[in-house]
Specification:
The chain is α+β, with helices and mostly antiparallel strands. The strands form 3 sheets. A 7-stranded mixed sheet has the order 2-3-4-10-5-6-7. The structure holds nicotinamide-adenine-dinucleotide.
Length: 362
C-alpha cells in the first residue's frame, strides 16, 4: 500500500488554514490541529486529519461556536463545573485540563467537568497534559449512542473513551487510552467497504445477537461493549461505558445516553459532557515514579508467549508509532486521505497539504 509522508508541522498548518478559512479563532484552530496531529502521530488515524471535515462542517453550519471561551460556572479548591459554550471540543478540553492541573498543584487534586462541549479527539491528549507536571491525568467523554448494552438491542451508550496517564522515571509513562466499545465503528465500516465479515464479538444485529455481518451492525444493530457478549464479560465493558457516562453527562448536566444526538447527524447542538482529572502523586506515598517504572518493567520484561511479540504496557504501541514517524521524517498517510483533504482545502480556498517527496510502502 503506498503512502506519502507529511511532516507534523505541515499537517498542523493545513488544519489551521482550513479552520481559519471558515472563521475559527486562530488559537481555537491551533488547539484542534494539535489534537488531530497528535492522534495521527500516535497511530490513531480514526481521530486525526481524517476527521477534519467534520469539524469544518460543524463551524460552517454554525452548529458549533467559533468564538468565545469556556466559562467556570461553579468552583471549589479541587473542583469546577465548566460551561463549554458549545465551542470546539479541544478548546473546552484544554481549558478544563489546565484548570484541573492548576488545582492539583494547589490542593493535590483537580476534578473538572464540562457540559456544552463537542467532539474532542483522542482522550489521551488531555490526560497526557498532566504528565508534563509529573501528575496522573484522566480524561473521559460521552459520545453519540453506538453501543448496545449487554442483553439489549438498542444503542444507548457511546464509545465513551477512558484515558489514564501516569508518569514513571526518565520521561517514561503509562498511557491507557481506549474506547469502551470492543472496536471503533470505523473498523466495522472498513470491513463493510471491503466486503469482509467481522470477527464475532465486535457488533450485534437489530435483535441484539452478535453477528459477523458488518451490514447488520451498521443498519439497525450496533457495537458491543469491550468483552463482547455476556459469556465473555461484555457486561464489564458495559459497566465502564456507564461509568464514563456518569462522570460526564450525568455529573456535568450535559446530554447523556440515548438523548445525545445521532452520530454524524448535526440537527442540534451536541452538548457533550466531559471529565478531566489531575492527581498530584506528591500528596501520597513518596517514590511514585520509581514504583511506576518498576510496575512497567515487571510487565515489559516478562518472557512473551510468542518471542516475536514482546509484552507491552499501555502507551507502548503509540510510542512505537511515534518513533516510526520520527525515523521516516513525517506521518505516513494513505494517498486517498491526502487527496480527499486537498479537495476539502480547495473548496475552502486554502493552499494544499504538501507531502514530502518520499513515497513509502507499508
Ligand atoms: N472522542 C471520542 O469520541 C472517542 C471515542 C472513542 C475513541 N476515541 C479515541 O480513539 C482512540 C483509539 O481507541 P481504541 O480503543 O481503538 O484504542 P486501541 O484499542 O488501539 O488501544 C487501547 C489501549 O490499549 C493499549 N494497547 C494496545 N495494544 C496493547 C498491547 N499489546 N499491550 C498493552 N497495551 C496495549 C494502547 O496503548 C491503548 O492505551 C483513542 O485515542 C480514544 O481516545 C475517541
Amino acid at each position: 500500500m503506498s503512502r506519502c509522508l507529511i511532516t507534523k508541522a505541515e499537517v498542523q498548518l493545513f488544519i489551521e488554514r482550513c479552520m481559519g478559512a471558515v472563521g475559527t479563532k486562530p488559537h481555537h484552530a491551533r488547539s484542534l490541529a494539535e489534537v488531530l496531529v497528535e492522534g495521527d502521530h500516535r497511530g490513531h488515524y480514526s481521530h486525526g486529519l481524517n476527521r477534519m471535515d467534520m469539524y469544518v462542517k460543524d463551524i460552517q453550519t454554525k452548529i458549533c461556536e467559533k468564538d468565545g471561551e469556556p466559562v467556570i460556572e461553579k468552583e471549589s479548591p479541587a473542583t469546577a463545573l465548566v460551561d463549554g459554550k458549545n465551542l470546539l471540543g479541544p478548546v473546552v478540553g484544554n481549558f478544563c485540563m489546565d484548570l484541573a492541573i492548576k488545582k492539583a498543584k494547589e490542593v493535590g487534586i483537580g476534578w473538572v467537568v464540562a457540559h456544552g462541549s463537542n467532539h474532542y479527539g483522542i482522550a489521551g491528549y488531555y490526560s497526557m497534559q498532566a504528565l508534563k507536571s509529573n501528575m496522573i491525568g484522566m480524561s473521559f467523554t460521552n459520545t453519540s449512542p453506538l453501543v448496545v448494552p449487554t442483553r439489549g438491542k438498542e444503542c444507548t451508550l457511546g464509545t465513551n473513551p477512558i484515558s489514564v496517564a501516569a508518569p514513571a522515571r526518565d520521561g517514561d509513562s503509562f498511557v491507557l487510552d481506549m474506547a469502551t466499545s470492543a472496536v471503533a465503528l470505523g473498523k466495522v465500516e472498513l470491513h463493510d467497504r471491503r466486503g469482509d465479515s467481522i470477527p464475532e464479538g465486535w457488533g450485534c444485529d437489530a435483535q441484539g445477537k452478535l453477528t459477523p455481518d458488518p451490514k447488520k451492525v451498521l443498519n439497525g444493530g450496533g457495537l458491543v461493549p469491550i468483552g463482547g457478549c455476556e459469556a465473555t464479560g461484555g457486561y464489564k465493558g458495559y459497566g465502564l461505558g456507564m461509568m464514563v457516562e456518569l462522570f460526564c453527562g450525568i455529573l456535568a448536566g450535559a446530554q447523556y445516553s440515548k438523548h445525545i444526538r445521532t452520530w454524524k447527524v448535526t440537527d442540534r447542538i451536541a452538548n457533550l459532557g466531559q471529565c478531566f482529572v489531575a492527581i498530584n502523586p506528591e500528596n501520597f506515598a513518596s517514590g511514585f515514579n520509581d514504583r511506576m517504572s518498576d510496575l512497567l518493567s515487571i510487565q515489559r520484561e516478562l518472557e512473551p508467549a510468542d518471542s516475536e511479540h514482546p509484552v507491552l504496557a499501555a502507551g507502548d504501541p503509540e510510542r512505537m508509532n511515534m518513533k516510526k514517524c520520527e525515523e521516516l521524517g513525517g506521518i505516513p498517510y494513505h494517498i486517498n486521505v491526502v487527496n480527499f483533504m486537498n479537495e476539502c482545502g480547495q473548496r475552502l480556498g486554502v493552499n494544499p497539504l504538501l507531502p514530502t517527496d518520499k513515497v513509502i510502502s507499508l
